[in-house]
Structure formats: structure tokens, C-alpha cells
Input
Amino acid sequence: MKEYKVINIITLSLILLISIIAAHIENLSRVNVVAYTWGSRGTIVQQIQQKLSEWGYYKKDIDGVYGQDTWLAVKTFQQDNNIRVDGIVGDATLSKMGILFGNIAYAASGNTYTWGSTGETVKEIQRKLRSWGYYSGAVDGDYGYETWLAVRKFQSKNGLKVDGVVGGQTLQNLGIQTGGSSGNVSREVNLVAAAINGESRGEPYEGMVAVGAVILNRTKSGKFPTTIAGVIYQPGAFTAVDDGQINLAPSRQSINAAKDALNGWDPTGGCIYYWNPGTATSKWIWSRDIVTKIGKHYFGK
Amino acid sequence: MEEKNKQEGKQEKKDNYLLRLKKKLSDRHIYSIFVVILAVIIGIAAYMYKQKLNYESYLQNTFQSSFYEGAKYIDDVDNLLAKIKITNKPNQRVRIFTDLYREAASAQSNISRLPYNQSIMAVVLKYLTQLSDFSYAMLIKSADNQDLTPEEINSMNNLAQYATVLSTKMSQIKQDISDGNRINWDEIQKEGEANLQDVGNANMKALTGSISGVQKDFQNYPSLIYDGPFSEHIQKMEPEFIKNKEYIRKEVAIEIAKDFVGRDKIASIDMIYVTSTKQPHVIPVYRFGIKTAGDKNYSTILDITQQGGKPLWMLNYRQIPMTNAKLDMNTLANKTRDFLNKMGYPNMEVNYYEIVDSAVVFNFAYVQNGVTIYPDLIKVKTSLINGDIVGFESMGYIMTHKERVLPTPKITPEAAKGEVNKTFQIERVKLTLIPLDSKKEVLCYELKGKNEGKDFLVYVNAVTAKHEKILELIKNQNGVFTQ
Output
């Protein structure tokens, strides 16, 4: 009996200790998510939805947001495959779905391509690698094991960081220009998308475009820094920047909204401020004229 | 009674438990384990606290350096503005305006990194931006050997006065610091979150480093009009296309919205916002949300201007599936142009398109007597899959469109070609009306050509033969210049 209590106290203290350390590590490095559930976002979630819809479990939009519909679909999928039915897409579920390395969670969004990436750009990567003899597989637009090996080979030959992730530098070395790095819709897409992602969670799409438009309007107003990065990282300007949410991988929708905003769509008609009337702490902001209201946000000049 | 017994029993049990716990704690083994664990926790806490201090001082130092640099540039600006009053020839001013332009921009960028509150920031940053922008406009003017007008001299004197206000404030803060006070940027940031209406009050105890006090000095800051993108007149521009048109009722607007989107595509339509018409410099709109059959949420949002009843922007954000089947670009462009024509935008011509995922964004400009009018811009986003119009944006067109009286070119296209370096291989020349940064419109020959393998557009003023702009065309697979 006594022994039992001792162990009890020790375990309790250890749990406490571990949770402190865990909290500390989490705080310092914001470790990547290794499982996906309610509220998860990003390209892996998109892939999960894609797979589920291919097999008929999921019938809603493939938007990369893990909501109720995805949850239900995942549970049914787990039931059918004898995986613990918890609605959490972890290791087992991912491997059953055939999404490899999904749990490593490279923030494979925007302009990076790695395991599990698909599409035109992947095809282009394969084509180039093939023409230079690094790759001998099929040009099918599916980033799999062979592509991964080829990319690594290419990276080591070209003095790049050998990680199998095709990002900005590797793309440049491959001579591939992507939608993200061109014309009006320029390199800034990722930055604006990240800000939109952090600032307008749960807002309607036009509300996301509007947040992007406000960022761009600020660069032109003179009352703010004159560059996009300057505006986004201005101290105290955006809560998502202050609390680090801007570092999350942006959702597909945020990227689209950023592109629309950079292409000139402005649902706010030139506003440079917005605030949530439920949470805005500064009284001064209420002295602004309300030009429009979208979702939960008020927009003003 | 039974209940009471039960409670007492519980109490007894609890007492027993506490007693046992106390006994156990006095047991040496457990005691030492407890102490070790406590020590480890304290150790970790101390380590974390130290790290927090490190980060904090790193952040403080970053703010500190931005502050001192910003203050230095503001001092320089103040001196330069005093110097420039002594000069009387354009060529003497060029150098000083160049310095002013640069130093004011540096001051702006340094101050913008500090955690001051939005209201004071808006005032100070706007001043520094305008100063830099104004200096640039004056620099261009002086380089053309033109003298400043009396109004410009007046603006400059005004600007100088505010530079002194700011520079004095900065010296005060520096004095305060050398008196042993320290700027606590954390406090400064909190000041921003506090009730901002009180901050401007002199009654409040001023924080070391706060610049909120200058807000009242800037109350009479004049609106500055000059040839630059941050000049006040740009904010105050009126929408040429609709400014003399009638305001329409919402019943009329809803019909326009239906026609624009296509009645067959609409399952339901709601008005979701109406802009108040009382605010200055805002284009009031009726906003409609549209659902197609089977939609839970709105899939299309459309703004119709209250004045004139013109569609301002439209977005359909149903995700277009990725496929390889793509329509021919010429067919798409023609189809889109026909759509614009039908909607009451004749004589529009595609200049540029850019493929964004599964859609293409066409930039259309108005053509008047064969001259491309670039300010009258409409962007249309068309699905590559089926040619549906999924986006529309006409702010440019609404702000500037009118039938213009175009000046007659004073130089020939051949003469314009002579204005560029011989290595520049010209592929074609056309007459265009382009907006300058100040939104002033000038008639230019647009020379498209190559230099050292790169594509450029050179704009030569068709009246004065002056180079107005040189643009490099960055080549990429998604963006294409069509003419």
C-alpha cells in the first residue's frame, strides 16, 4: 500500500516535470503537428480530404480545413479499416491512407514541394530531373520515393541543402518559375497568405481578401511602413504576428485570397484599419469611420 | 441522520489521508525524492527565466537601436530643411533634396519599427513619408532645372516646422535618458493598448520615450498637394465614371446584380451590406451575396455602386478544380471581351494576362481613338476550365474613366525611338496614356523592345519627349504581355 503511494507521487511529479519541459519546448520551437484533427489545416489535411473523397467517405469541399465533415469521414474510414476510431489522423491512419511522411509535416505549402506533393509543378520538376538524368521514373506529377531520391541527388550535386524538399532555391536551380514568383502576384504571396491565415480564421472568403487588401492599402497610405513585410511585422499591428500564428502554414484559401488581394481585388474600398468589435481594446480605433463590415470585422479609413 | 454519519465518515477519511500523507512526507526517502524533484523544477524555472530575460533585452536593444537611428535621421532632416532655405538655384537644391529624400525615408522606416500606438504612428509616419515623397518630387523638378513655385516653398517651410517639432521631442527623450531614465518599450507598447483618447492629454504622466505628446503639435498639419504618390489629392480623387450619375435604389441594384452574374446561375440573392453615403472619399455600394443551387454559403459576392449602379467588384470563390484541360487563350480573351461589351464596357482591349491556378486574370484597358488608356483598367478573372467569369474588378475604370480630350503628339514615333539607346532593339511602338505616380495622365509612346536579352517597356512623353518611365518585363510562364 505504501509502495503504491510512493509510486503515485513520483509519477505525478514526473508528469508535472515532463509537461513543464514539453511546454517549454513547444514554446521555443513550435514543433510541427504530427497528427491531424479538428482545426488542423494545410496541405496534408487537403491530401487526407482528397483521399477520403476518392474513396467516397468525404463529400465536401477539399479546402484543407479539418472540420466536422472531415472528422466524421475520418471516423468512418477508421471504423472500416479497424483503426481506433478517434477521428485523429495519426501515424496508423496516415499510412492506411497511403500518405507517406505526412506526420513529418513539412510545411509543404505555397511554393515548396516534397513527399506527397502533386500537380503541374511536380511534373515540371520530374521532367527537368529526367532530362538531366537524375530521374528515371514516370512524369506523373506525383512526388514519391523516386522523385525524392532524384531531388536529393540533384541537391547534393548542386551544393544545395540536401533535404528532398524542393523550395525556392532548388526551384531556381531547376529553372522552374512557379505561379508564386511572378508578375503582380509576386514573391509576397506567401507572406500575405500567412498574415491572412493568422488574422482571419473563420472569416468568409471576401473577409480574407479584405485583410490582404488592408495590408496592401497600408503600404500605399504613408501612415505605415511602405513595404509589405514592414506593414505585417510592424510592432503591435497584427495580433497574429504578436502571438506567432503567422508562422503556421497558410491554408489553400488564404493563399488564394492573398493572390486575389495582390491582383487588385479590394472588398474594403481602400481601408487601412480593421477591428473586431467584440475584442478591440483600443477606443481610438472606434473614432475611425466604418466603411464596411465583413464577417466579424469592421473596416475603416 | 444517516446522511450526517456519512459526512462525518468522509471527513474522518480525509483526516486520515492527510495524516498518512504527513507521515509519509516525514519519511526520509520520500522527502529526498521530493526535494530532488523540487530542485529540478526550480532549476528549469530559473533557466527559463534567464532565457526570457535574454530575449527581452535582445528585443529592447533592437527597439533602442531603431529609436536612436530614427532620432539621428530626424535631426538630419531638420538640418537639411534649414539649409535648403538658403539656396536659390535648382542645381544647388538637387543635392540637398536627394539627401532629404533618403534621410526622411530612413527615419520613416526606423520609427515604423517602434511599438508606438497606431494613432501617433499614423501622424508621424505620414509626415515622414510625405516629406520623403515631396523631396523626391522636388528633386525631379530641380534636376529638370525648374524653380520651386511659391506654394511649394510654402509647403517646404511647413514641413520644416514639423521637423523641428519632432527633432525637439527626440532631443528631450535623449536628454531624459541621459538623466538616468530608461525607455521601457514594454510600457510604451502598453500605452498603445490603453485608452488611446487619454494618451494625448497632457495630464497623463508621460512615459520616458513616449512621443504621444507631439500629437497635438500635429493637429494643424496641412494637407500637402504635390506631384507624388503620397500627396493628399490622391485620397480626395472622385470617381470620374460615376460622379455625375444618379443614386439608384436597392431594387434596381438587385436587378443589375442578377444581370451581371447571370440569372440562370442564381438560386438566391441577398443584400448583405449597404455603405452609408455620409462618409467622404468612399464609394458607397450595395453588397450582394449569391448562392447557386446546392450552396450552403454564399459562393459569389458582388458590390454594386449606389451611384450609377455599376459593378465595382465581384468574386466567385468556389474552388476551381485543377485539370489539364485548358481553353485556348485567344478564345477566352475574346469571350471575356464580349462579356465586357455586353455589360456596357465597349472598346476594351487585353494588355496582359496572368494565369493564377486554374483561372486567368485579364487586364483590360480602354482604347480611345487607337490610344490605349491604361488608367481605365478592368481586371476580369476567367475560369480556364469553362470560361466562366469568376472575378471582376473595376476600381481603376470607375475612378478615372471618361472621354478625354487627348493632346496631339508633338513628336513622331520615329523621334521617340531616337530618345533611347541604340542597343535597345525596338519591336513596336504605340500611343498610350499612362498614369504617373501622382495619377497625372500623360500621353506617351510605348516602345517595347529588348536590351541585352531582357524585355523592356519604355515610355517617352509624346509632347515633351521626356522619358516618363522604364519598365522591365519580368518573363515568366504565367504572365503574358499580349501586344
Summary: Confidence is low (pLDDT under 50) at residues 199-203 of chain B. The first strand of chain B starts at residue 268 and ends at 274. Chain B has four domains: 51-234, 237-318, 320-403, 413-481.
